[in-house]
Amino acid sequence: MTLSADQQAEIDALRAETHQTLRATVPGMEAHLYKAYPVLDHGFVRVVDYMGDDSAICQAARVSYGRGTKSVQNDEGLIRYLMRHWHSTPFEMCELKLHVKLPVFVARQWIRHRTANVNEYSARYSILDREFYIPGPEHLAAQSVVNNQGRGEALTGEEAARVLEYLKADSARAYDHYEEMISDEGQQGLARELARMNLPANIYTQWYWKVDLHNLLHFLRLRADSHAQYEIRVYAEEICKLVADWVPFAYKAFEDYRLGAVTLSSQMVDCLRRMLKGEEVTEENCGMSKREWREFMATIE
Predict the structure, then answer these.
(1) What is the pLDDT of residue 70?
(2) 189 and 291: one domain?
(3) Which of 46, 130, 162, 223 is labelled catalytic?
(4) Which of this chain's residues are annotated to bind FAD (predicted)?
(5) In the chain, at which residue ranges do the beta strands (DSSP E only) sit?
(6) Distance (Å, rounded) from C-alpha 111 to C-alpha 106?
(7) Is there a contact between 235 and 102 (Cβ–Cβ < 8 Å)?
(8) 86 and 214 together in one domain
(9) Is 122 annotated as a binding residue?
(10) 89 labelled ligand-binding
(11) Which residues contact 200 (CB under 8 A, 6 or more apart)?
(12) Alpha-carbon distance 8 to 283, whole Å?
């Protein structure tokens, strides 16, 4: 992980300050404020600000649903009820603002979640640092033979060494040309907004990302899943740790009802019922496609 001198100075100054407030604070989250947690080789995640806690979720729910929630005896029970029955609005009452440093190709996946406020480092205005994501040898893998958007077995031997060298050499060469093009020594120098087009997708960018808890949990459900691409999954896993300390009741419910749960189609439910009755259910008589059957069997075995 690499922090600039200015960023480290900002973090040190902010962590040295204390403020009195009447708003809700969470000790676990206060401990995380401004700290940068490393991800990948040069990336990080740090909490810039947060709003709300478990109680804020319950407060919003009781205002919204009134007498309908009075049978729930405590905050944790109410939160689990809300999560279990897919009530979303109360979770929108909490917000989190993160500073994230990440490779551009990961950012392009991340930005697909169009439910947050984002302000990214401007390569039109500033010069990007010479920092590239280079995978560890164990993460250099061949194309999956069963999933068109996934990876399979790790590359080995000469092939792995050759690919790793390509990644390092191409990244360095592209940045050398970038620096040369924008230089104004003995030439006019190409505009930064044009020179950046020659940089590879593994160069690091940074952004501030602010999102409410409902949409954050949706992001984590997809990106912290074992099927998510490794390079974005490690960011999601780091954020999961932060959320667990911020809203522990909500995060536990999320683990139980979203992250650790599965969704069954009506055909899958029908097959499961038939199995429980002792009927032999096979791929031929299940009424599902081969892939659906494979996923169903992986779920129940």
Answers:
(1) 53
(2) no
(3) 223
(4) 89, 112-114, 120, 212-214, 218
(5) 36-39, 43-51, 95-103, 117-120, 141-143, 151-154, 204-212
(6) 9
(7) yes
(8) yes
(9) yes
(10) yes
(11) 104, 132, 170, 171, 174
(12) 58
Residue 191 has what DSSP assignment? -
Half-sphere exposure of residue 296: CA atoms within 13 angstroms, side-chain side: 21
pTM, rounded to two decimals:
0.88
Do 5 and 112 reside in the same domain of the chain?
A: yes
DSSP SS3 for 276: helix
Q: Is there a binding annotation on residue 67?
A: no
Shared-domain flag, residues 65 and 89: yes
pLDDT of residue 86: 94
The pLDDT value given to residue 73:
60
Residue 214 counted as an annotated binding residue:
yes
pLDDT of residue 19: 78
Low-confidence ranges of the chain (pLDDT < 50): none
In this structure, the answer to whether residues 156 and 67 fall within a common structural domain is: no
Q: Which domain holds residue 190?
A: 134-201
Same domain, 44 and 98: yes
Q: Could you tell me if 190 and 210 lie in one domain? A: no
> What is the pLDDT, as a whole number, of residue 24?
83
223 labeled binding residue: yes
- Structural domain count, the chain: 3
C-alpha distance across the termini of the chain, in Å:
40
The torsion defined by the Cα of 61, 67, 69 and 70, in degrees rounded to 10, comes to: 130
218 annotated among ligand-binding-site residues: yes
Segment 145-158, tens digit of pLDDT? 777 777 778 888 99
Helices (H) and strands (E) in the chain, counts: 12, 7
CB-CB contact of 44 with 100 (8 Å): yes
Asked whether residue 130 is marked as a ligand-binding residue, the answer is no
CATH number for the domain spanning 229: value is 3.30.1360.170
Those residues whose C-beta lies under 8 Å from the C-beta of residue 108, and which sit 6 or more positions away, are: 201
Structure tokens that stand for 121 in this block = 């480092």
Q: What single-letter DSSP state applies at residue 33?
A: B
| Token pair in block for residue 8 | 């480290």
